[in-house]
Amino acid sequence: MTLCSSSSPRRQALWLSAALLALCAPAAGVAQTLDDPAVRAPSAGGQRATQANADYDQDLDASAAPADPWEGFNRQAFKFNRGLDRYVTGPIGRGYMKITPKAVRHRVASVVNNLGEPGTAINDLAQGRPRAAGVTTSRFLINSTVGGLGLFDVGAKVGLEGHEADFGQTLGRYGAKSGRYVVLPLLGPTTVRDGAGRLVDTMTDPVALATAGGAKSFGMIRGGVTALDARANSDGFLRALDEAADPYAMMRSAYLQNRADMVRQARGGVQVLPDFDAARIEP
Amino acid sequence: MSRRILPWLFLLPSAYAQPALAARDASAEAFARAGASRLLGVLGDKAAGPAQKDAAFHKAIDELADVPRVTHFVLGKYARTITPDQKRRFALAFRSYAERIYQGRLADYGGERVSVVGSVMRKPGDVIVATEISGGQLDRPVPVSWRVLQSPGGWRVVDVQFRGVWLAITQQQDFVATIDNAGGDVEVLINRLRSDAPVSVKRR
């Protein structure tokens, strides 16, 4: 079973987009802030001095040294992915952005996001957030009907703000550590935990399962459009990588911070932030 | 919802554990509100020429950001070992680099509005202000948090968070990795940040 023929176009697209485009960048990862006001409040952030505390959790530390023992392999995979983006997927994504008005791209993004809502609702439930699951389900129902198959985010207009949830986040919510950082050729950056989470999301995507008996072209079209949308959304971040002193380190830092923030939102913990005057990081 | 399912939901944790919310800080919020609006105003000023805009951006950064603190921070562990001469040259290169890239990125956001949605005081003089940027070309509000610290000149921004990613922390890890991979040679980073560094050097 190839990625394109597997049963979860949206999750695939996240893989593909992350992948083919050296993606999964936080700009594309788009971990939107949850609608829960308590979660939306900025994290107070503990002091680095609290690291000695029993409560200290490196997964919530925004500036913790990354666990990257496979850096040699990862840098090669990152280089391959960037090359692919420069010569193949980047031109396709920029071509799409050039010929498509922003208003149209917003509508495409809206449809893509809407098809991901059932998967989000399942993870909301798995995280013990029935209220969030209810909001997500309501959004899906409203946007799929009144919103013209997801073309318009009517849910947000009536106060049902969207958010993202995935199984890697769910695992993190129950204490699973992120594990080693790894960059996969074609599939982009992930961690051991989040890679496993992606697999589960891919195999349990409700929309893909519900349409599995229908036209095969639906899954392929959905996967392709989602990848295109993700590439367009991550274009700014990918351009920023070109300006980094070490693009690999920048991607790793941004990806891990984005994921740590997703998990922090699910757990409700505070993010540990560095002391600006100490200028201290791990050796 | 089925009556059979409902009871099971109560076995689940009712919600996320709520973060301990500290007090809001009105003065930090006011600073962030005014500062963000001013910055977006500079970037969105279509009447100003490129040189005028550069000068206004430079002045705004001086007044809104704690540049020396950020410059020290992004060097990470190397801030302790760098020589005074290297520090001076790094500061010049970093300032020029940061203005060049962030002005370019932020220019895409001209015309948007900034609204403060809350703040959390981590400790006196250290506050995270949550804002939302909306309108303009955005189809939905974008949450952006600002970490502001009290300095002798008043509140100053030291870091900005967007989609969970703190820019100064990212910059620090980018720079420290660069120096690490150069065997601890800070000159490699300074050369890479200079505006006249060839693109091929920057692209790896």
Automatic annotation (TrEMBL), chain A:
The keyword Cytoplasm does not apply. It comes from the Bacteria. InterPro entries: MlaA. One of its GO terms (biological process) is intermembrane phospholipid transfer. The keyword Nucleotide-binding does not apply. Keywords: Signal. One of its GO terms (cellular component) is membrane. Residues 1-27 form the signal peptide. Pfam families: MlaA (PF04333). Belongs to the MlaA family. This is Phospholipid-binding lipoprotein MlaA. It comes from Caulobacter endophyticus.
TrEMBL record, chain B:
InterPro entries: MlaC/ttg2D, Tgt2/MlaC_sf. Residues 1-22 form the signal peptide. Keywords: Signal. It comes from the Bacteria. Transmembrane segments: none annotated. The keyword Signal applies. PANTHER family: INTERMEMBRANE PHOSPHOLIPID TRANSPORT SYSTEM BINDING PROTEIN MLAC. This is Toluene tolerance protein.
